[in-house]
Amino acid sequence: MERRSPPVGASSWSAAERQAYANDLGDDRSLIAVTAKSNRSKTDKDPADWLPPADDYVCTYVTDWTTVKTRWGLTADPREKDALQRIAAGCPNNDIAVAFAR
After folding, report:
1. Cys staple from 7: which of 11, 23, 59, 75, with CB 3.0 to 4.6 Å?
2. What are the residues whose beta carbons fall under 8 Å from the beta carbon of 24, sequence distance 6 or more?
3. Who contacts 53 (Cβ-Cβ below 8 Å, separation ≥6)?
């Protein structure tokens, strides 16, 4: 599947694109139900600064994070990219399917 637009940050998105991203029900990895405590501890941190407290969920979290970024054509800053690569190196090498949202 071809990417329709180059990776960018969401700062250039329209209000409709931001709303579509925030309410994305097109991929089960986009919206994950968590406890209020977990949501408060994460806030707006990326994987360079926050990982789930359940060690057995870290690989799933990083895979889901990367899939959502890819789905929406979002970039990763250098710290985030380094953290994702470092963590993923210790995870199983599974094929991942991505349906592009934009």
Report:
1. 75
2. 30, 31, 68, 71, 72, 101
3. 38, 41
Q: Can you state the percent helix, strand and coil of the chain, rounding each to 5?
A: 45, 0, 55
Enclosing domain of residue 80:
32-102
pLDDT tens digits for 84-100?
999 999 999 988 899 99
- Tell me 8's DSSP state: B
Closest residue by Cα to residue 24 from 70, 61, 57, 72 = 72
For residue 74, the SS3 value is: strand
Number of folded domains in the chain? 1
Half-sphere exposure of 63 toward its Cβ, with a 13 Å CA cutoff?
17
The Cα–Cα gap between 38 and 52 comes to: 8
pTM of the model: 0.81
Helices of type H across the chain: 15-22, 36-42, 58-71, 78-88
